[in-house]
C-alpha cells in the first residue's frame, strides 16, 4: 500500500494478474509515487496488470503517459493489460488524446479477465 494523502494505491491478485486500485489524484505531485508503485508491481508480479481507476479524481497527461508506458511494457513482455472503471470527467485526458480508443478499457474486473481468457 502507498498513501501520501493525495493518492492511495493498493493491489490484489486475480490469478497471475496484479490488480492495482488507484484512488485520488494522478498529476505531477503524485507522478513519482504512481510510477514507483507500477514499476514495483510489474517487477514483483510479472507483466499481467489491471489498473482500477474508479477512484481517480483527476488525471493529467503525465499520468496517462505512465499508463501508456506500462501498457507497452506489459504487452511487450507477453502480458495482459487493462484499465477498468474509468470515469470520463476524471480521466478526460484519455478522451482528449484519443487514447480511450486504443487502450484496453473495461467496465469491470470480470470483463477484463474474460477478455484475457478469450
Automatic annotation (TrEMBL):
Stored SUPFAM superfamilies: SpoIIaa-like (SSF52091)
Family the entry assigns: Belongs to the anti-sigma-factor antagonist family.
STAS domain sequence ranges: 7-116
Pfam families given in the database record: STAS (PF01740)
NCBIfam families associated with the record: ant_ant_sig (TIGR00377)
CDD domains reported for this sequence: STAS_anti-anti-sigma_factors (cd07043)
Protein name in the entry: Anti-sigma factor antagonist
Alphabetical list of InterPro entries matching this protein: Anti-sigma_ant, STAS_dom, STAS_dom_sf
One GO MF term: anti-sigma factor antagonist activity
PROSITE patterns in UniProt: STAS (PS50801)
Amino acid at each position: 500500500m502507498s498513501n501520501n494523502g493525495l493518492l492511495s494505491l493498493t493491489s490484489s491478485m486475480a490469478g497471475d494478474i496484479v490488480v492495482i486500485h488507484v484512488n485520488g489524484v494522478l498529476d505531477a505531485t503524485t507522478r513519482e509515487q504512481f510510477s514507483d508503485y507500477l514499476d514495483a508491481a510489474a517487477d514483483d508480479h510479472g507483466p499481467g496488470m489491471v489498473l482500477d481507476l474508479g477512484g481517480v479524481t483527476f488525471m493529467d497527461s503525465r499520468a496517462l503517459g505512465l499508463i501508456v508506458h506500462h501498457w507497452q511494457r506489459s504487452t511487450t513482455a507477453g502480458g495482459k493489460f487493462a484499465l477498468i472503471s474509468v470515469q470520463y470527467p476524471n480521466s478526460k485526458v484519455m478522451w482528449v488524446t484519443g487514447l480511450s480508443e486504443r487502450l484496453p478499457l473495461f467496465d469491470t474486473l470480470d470483463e477484463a479477465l474474460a477478455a484475457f481468457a478469450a
